[in-house]
Amino acid sequence: MKTQQILIVDDGEVNRAILNEMFREEYETIEASNGQDAIYEIEKNHNIVLILLDIVMPILNGFRVLDYMKEHNLLDQIPVILITSETVRDSEDKAYSYGVADVMHKPFYPHIVKRRSKNIIELYQNKRNMEIRLKEQESAIRAKEKEIRKGNELMIEALSSIVEFRSAETGEHTRRIKYFTRILLKYLMHYFPKYGLTEDQMEEIIRASALHDIGKIGIPDAILLKPARLTDEEYEIMKSHTTIGCEMLEKCYRDKTSDFYHYCYEICRYHHERWDGGGYPDHLVGDKIPLSAQVVAVADVYDALVSPRVYKESFTNSEAFDMILKGECGEFAPDILECFELAREEFFNIVEVIKMFNFL
């Protein structure tokens, strides 16, 4: 362990000698006779635990040393005690405004200086050790959260894959939905700050989007796998996948206060709602539809249009885009449609890109 250092800065040789004698048995003492030399010693030595600093000195005074330390964010790391012959109150106030630990006046009493110095060193060391422990704890918590998130991602992928296998889809639907959702949220954050979306919220919504069709697990095979258009009666049963998904979440998810749970619930239940109230299951209108579900709704419809189904051929990117913008698939939020239009090229490219690279 390196010896702790105390930097003594004073143009008076006698004062430096007295302070040096007080501390040299317990600390490595370093001396400087002016502010310029003090800054040199601060830059050269990296185990300084205290600076005893005079104010009135040649070349650079004590306040210039404090300016340097402030500019380099050192005052929170290295405590400073001003030992000065000045008794002007303004100078003392100015010193404390920098964040110095203490101010003592000459002539000083060595035992008082020593006791205060040791107390301040101990205080700063305890503060630093606490900061280190907090950072270590924070790192451990983040690592644990990352591990939990990784496990959750695995479960989400497994559940979404089960849905896709049951509905005879390609296995890429969920992946594309996540990426389309990311694109729309990115534009929404940039062009519509009024929604107050954060990076963390965006990531949670993207993860939750993978579970948008989880309720299809509860739809009978005869309907889910029917190689033709559904009858009106069958379509009503298919529509129930929105509420079935929510029932599954309510039964399986313990922490119902988390943002992730709320996004999963919103997306499961409301991703087939439409801006004009023409959707299902609750026929919500306008901003009563949660933002997360509004975004996933556009992503889901676009992917359904550009993907082949047993009952239809796929539409081209341009055709799908025009159908959504013209309201042929129901009405969507104007702000999200604006983002959708701005992201046209990214949507056009994503299906091909996702075949080449594993983004998510």
Break the fold down into its secondary structure elements and pairings.
Layout: E1 5-9, H1 13-23, E2 28-32, H2 35-44, E3 48-53, H3 62-71, E4 80-84, H4 89-98, E5 102-105, H5 110-166, H6 173-191, H7 199-209, H8 221-224, H9 232-239, H10 241-252, H11 259-270, H12 291-306, H13 317-325, H14 334-342, H15 344-356
Parallel strand pairs: 1-2, 1-3, 3-4, 4-5
Helix pairs in contact: 2-3, 6-7, 6-12, 6-14, 6-15, 7-11, 10-11, 11-12, 12-13
Kindly name the structural category: alpha/beta
Average pLDDT score: 86
N-to-C order of helices and strands: EHEHEHEHEHHHHHHHHHHH
Q: Taking Cα atoms only, what radius of gyration do you get, to the nearest Å?
A: 33 Å
Q: Main sheet, how many strands, which sense, barrel?
A: 5 strands, parallel
- Kindly report the spatial arrangement of strands forming the biggest sheet: 2-1-3-4-5
Q: Give me the count of strands.
A: 5
Termini separation (Å)? 46 Å
Shape: elongated
What fraction, in percent, of the residue positions are helical? 55-70%
What's the total helix number?
A: 15
Unreliable runs: none
Beta-strand content:
5-15%
Describe the oligomeric state of these chains in a short phrase: single chain
